[in-house]
Design goal:
Keywords: Membrane, Transmembrane, Transmembrane helix. Pfam families: Tmpp129 (PF10272). It comes from Thrips palmi (Melon thrips). By secondary structure, this protein is an alpha+beta fold. The protein folds into 3 domains: about 5-120, no CATH class; about 155-255, Pleckstrin-homology domain (PH domain)/Phosphotyrosine-binding domain (PTB) (PH-domain like), CATH 2.30.29; about 265-370, no CATH class. The chain has helices at about 5-20, 25-30, 35, 40, 50-65, 65-80, 95-120, 125-135, 145-155, 240-245, 265-275, 325-335, and strands at about 160-165, 170-175, 175-180, 185-190, 195-205, 215-225, 230-235, 250-255, 280-285, 300, 350, 360, 365-370. The strands form 4 sheets. Strands 1-2-3-4 form a 4-stranded antiparallel sheet, with helices on both faces. Strands 7-6-5-8 form a 4-stranded mixed sheet, with no helix packed on it. A 3-stranded mixed sheet has the order 9-13-10, with no helix packed on it. Helix 5 (about 50-65) packs antiparallel against helix 7 (about 95-120) and helix 8 (about 125-135) packs across helix 9 (about 145-155).
């Protein structure tokens, strides 16, 4: 029969991993440090930098308590599994276990001592505060709190983007800052004096999309500000475009790196190429902006050009709608109505977004003004 200590060890290891690297189930259940200690941590959207200082501190303390918590839990299980007259607390300890207990006790004590050095003088010695202080205006005598206030203000804006890089790492891009949020630290860089270099990319076989691999890109953020610390961010290649659209500095892609486009982007290229081969639709009417994106004039018209298939029950029908869509929005609409297997998309059919007339790619014509 397996000893209860074995079951406890397995349970403790699994629980610890789920707390340090929370799964979606743990997050939805509120079993995270941010949720459990929300009253002490405060609101991230109000004081972002101060919140991250408290969050990283709490993470360091709780994670440093993991070895000591195992000692307490294991001794409780061992005591419970023995009769009162059979179990002796110290007599069952071996030399290796005593060494482990000593280190498990010293780790949280040393962490607490470090906390005292950080917090006894207004947090200015905290690593995050020191990283923020690099960007203060020394000529005006500003402190790290001044820079933190600027970052807090930008984080409260709704136009920032937040990319979940992994279960424990987030990347935030505001109007002026690029921020990497990690369990134990916070890396920041001002966009005006930083270079972003896409140095490498790797492709993995696993993907939530059928027959479509996933690619991750590694971006080096190199601030030119003196004493600023460079850092790396790792993103899904599908999130790269969102980051590029938000930051003001271009991301330099090295020549030996090939970034894969998303499945939709690749399909759009093929869709547009097929539309250019179809007969054009000539008109002299004024064309309004595309009702999908409102960025470009409508430039495609749906009209039946394909031949009916006698063996198919749902053949294409003629669409009487005037040109109201651009080719990109029509292609995205077409892709969104297809099955998960991309190999069948080009030969599939779709319905008009307005009148629901069925059409295929052969029925999409480019609009030409007379």
């Amino acid at each position: 029969m397996t000893h209860p200590c074995v079951f406890f060890t397995i349970f403790y290891v699994v629980l610890t991993l789920c707390v340090i690297f929370p799964t979606p189930e743990f997050k939805s259940a509120g079993l995270t440090v941010e949720t459990i200690f929300s009253k002490w941590l405060g609101n991230e959207h109000e004081l972002f930098i101060q919140y991250q200082i408290r969050r990283t501190t709490m993470n360091m303390f709780l994670h440093s308590m993991v070895p000591f918590g195992y000692v307490l839990g294991l001794e409780y299980v061992r005591a419970y599994s023995y009769a009162d007259n059979e179990y002796q607390f110290l007599a069952t300890w071996s030399l290796s276990w005593i060494i482990y207990v000593v280190f498990a006790t010293l780790i949280p004590l040393s962490v607490c001592a470090q906390f005292y050095l950080w917090f006894h003088d207004g947090l200015k010695d905290h690593p995050i505060a020191q990283k923020v202080a690099v960007y203060r205006n020394r000529n005006l005598g500003g402190s790290w709190l001044t820079v933190a206030s600027d970052i807090n203000l930008e984080y409260r804006r709704v136009d920032k983007i937040i990319i979940q890089s992994s279960s424990v790492v987030r990347v935030v891009a505001t109007d002026n800052w690029v921020i990497k949020i990690s369990p134990y630290t916070l890396d920041i860089a001002h966009q005006s004096d930083s270079a972003l270099i896409l140095s490498s990319a790797d492709v993995h076989q696993w993907s939530p999309h059928i027959n479509d691999n996933v690619q991750f890109v590694n971006i080096e953020v190199k601030p030119t500000r003196q004493h600023a610390t460079p850092f790396k961010i790792r993103l899904n290649a599908l999130d790269l475009k969102d980051l590029q659209n938000k930051i003001s500095r271009p991301i330099t892609i090295l020549e030996n790196v090939r970034v894969r486009r998303s499945l939709i982007d690749r399909f759009l290229e093929t869709f547009i190429d097929e539309v250019t081969r179809n007969p054009v639709y000539s008109t002299n009417e004024e064309l309004d902006s595309c009702i999908g994106c409102m960025q470009v004039p409508a430039n495609v018209k749906l009209r039946k050009l394909c031949m009916d298939d006698p063996g198919h029950r749902e053949n294409c029908t003629n669409c009487l709608c005037r040109p109201m869509w651009c080719v990109n929005c029509m292609g995205r609409w077409f892709a969104s109505r297809q099955e998960k297997e991309p190999s069948t998309w080009l030969s599939s059919k779709c319905s008009c977004p307005l009148c629901r007339s069925r059409f295929c790619i052969l029925d999409v014509s480019a609009v030409v003004r007379r």
